[in-house]
C-alpha cells in the first residue's frame, strides 16, 4: 500500500490486489475499508478478495491474470508475499526451529544451542508483557530493539525495559496509522474518535479487563 501510494502521479494507473476482505487486515476491516476508500479517492484501483494466478508476457511482463479470470495490463508488478526464513540449513542441527521455520529463542534471545543467539525477522521470540511464549514479528523496529536488548543479555545485565512492538505507516505523504503493542488474544476494542475521518484511537483489551493490549491511531 505504501508503494502504491508513492506511485500515484508517476504511473499512468495503479492497481492494488488484496486476497483479504479489506487491505491491512491486521488493523481490522473497519480501518481497512477507510484506507481503501481513501486510496480509491486518490485514483488507485483496489481489488479485494482477489489473488494473482500468473504473470503474462515473456522476458517483459505485460500483465497479471487473477484467479477470477480478470487480466490486468501492467508494465511493472510488485508482489508483497511476506517473509520465508532462510533457515533450511539449520534443519537437523541442535538449533530448534518452529513449525514455520523460524528460529526459536528464549527471553534472552538464546537458541537451543549453547552460546548461540539469534534476533530479527528470522526468530520467534517471547513477548513477556503479553505473556506470549513465542511470536515472529517482521518489522525493522522489532529487529532494532532485539539488537539493543541482546547487548544486555550477552553482558548479563537486566533489560532497562521490555520490548513493545511499534509500527507506523504513511500514505501519499498525507495520512497514516500508528500501532503499538500486540493485539493477539484481544477480546474487544474501544474506539475514541471517528475512524471514517482517520481521527481516532483504537484500544484492544483482553477478557473484559482493564489491561490494554495495544493501541492504534492516526
Topology:
Elements: H1 2-7, E1 15-17, H2 29-41, E2 45-47, E3 52-57, E4 61-66, E5 71-73, E6 103-104, E7 123-127, E8 132-135, H3 140-155, E9 166-171, E10 175-181, E11 188-194, E12 199-205, E13 212-217
Architecture (CATH level 2) name of the domain at 1-82: 3-Layer(bba) Sandwich
Secondary structure: number of strands: 13
The major β-sheet equals: 5 strands, antiparallel
The CATH superfamily of the domain at 1-82 appears as FAD/NAD(P)-binding domain
| Percentage of residues assigned to helices | 10-25%
Structural class of the secondary structure composition? alpha+beta
User: H/E series, N to C?
Assistant: HEHEEEEEEEHEEEEE
User: What Rg is obtained from the alpha carbons, in whole angstroms?
Assistant: 20 Å
CATH fold-type name of the domain at 1-82: FAD/NAD(P)-binding domain
Could you name the CATH class of the domain at 1-82? Alpha Beta
Q: What general form does the structure show?
A: globular
Q: Give the end-to-end Cα distance, rounded to a whole number of Å.
A: 16 Å
Short summary:
With 218 residues, the chain is α+β, with helices and mostly antiparallel strands.
Structure description:
With 218 residues, the protein is α+β, with helices and mostly antiparallel strands. Among the domains are: 1-82, FAD/NAD(P)-binding domain (3-Layer(bba) Sandwich); 88-155, FAD/NAD(P)-binding domain. Helix content is 16%, strand content 30%. It is built from 3 helices and 13 strands, in the order αβαβββββββαβββββ. The chain has helices at residues 2-7, 29-41, 140-155; strands at residues 15-17, 45-47, 52-57, 61-66, 71-73, 103-104, 123-127, 132-135, 166-171, 175-181, 188-194, 199-205, 212-217. The strands form 4 sheets. It has a 5-stranded antiparallel sheet. The longest helix is centred in the last third of the chain and has 16 residues, at 140-155. The chain is globular and about 55 Å long. The mean pLDDT is 92.
Amino acid at each position: 500500500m505504501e508503494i502504491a501510494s508513492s506511485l500515484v502521479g508517476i504511473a499512468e494507473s495503479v492497481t492494488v490486489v488484496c486476497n483479504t476482505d479489506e487491505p491491512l487486515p491486521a488493523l481490522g476491516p473497519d480501518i481497512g475499508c477507510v484506507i481503501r476508500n481513501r486510496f480509491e479517492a486518490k485514483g488507485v484501483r483496489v481489488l479485494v478478495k482477489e489473488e494473482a494466478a500468473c504473470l503474462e508476457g515473456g522476458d517483459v511482463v505485460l500483465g497479471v491474470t487473477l484467479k477470477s479470470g480478470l487480466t490486468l495490463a501492467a508494465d511493472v508488478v510488485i508482489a508483497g508475499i511476506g517473509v520465508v526464513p532462510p533457515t533450511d540449513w539449520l534443519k537437523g542441527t541442535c538449533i530448534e526451529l518452529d513449525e514455520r521455520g523460524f528460529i526459536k529463542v528464549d527471553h534472552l534471545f538464546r537458541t537451543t544451542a549453547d552460546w548461540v543467539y539469534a534476533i530479527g525477522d528470522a526468530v520467534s521470540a517471547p513477548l513477556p508483557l503479553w505473556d506470549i511464549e513465542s511470536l515472529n514479528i517482521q518489522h525493522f523496529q522489532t529487529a532494532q530493539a532485539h539488537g539493543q536488548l541482546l547487548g544486555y543479555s550477552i553482558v548479563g545485565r537486566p533489560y532497562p525495559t521490555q520490548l513493545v512492538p511499534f509500527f507506523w505507516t504513511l500514505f501519499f505523504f498525507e495520512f497514516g496509522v500508528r500501532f503499538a503493542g500486540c493485539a493477539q488474544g484481544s477480546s474487544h476494542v474501544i474506539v475514541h474518535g471517528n475512524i471514517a475521518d482517520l481521527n481516532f484511537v483504537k484500544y484492544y483489551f483482553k477478557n473484559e479487563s482493564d489491561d490494554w493490549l495495544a493501541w492504534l491511531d492516526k
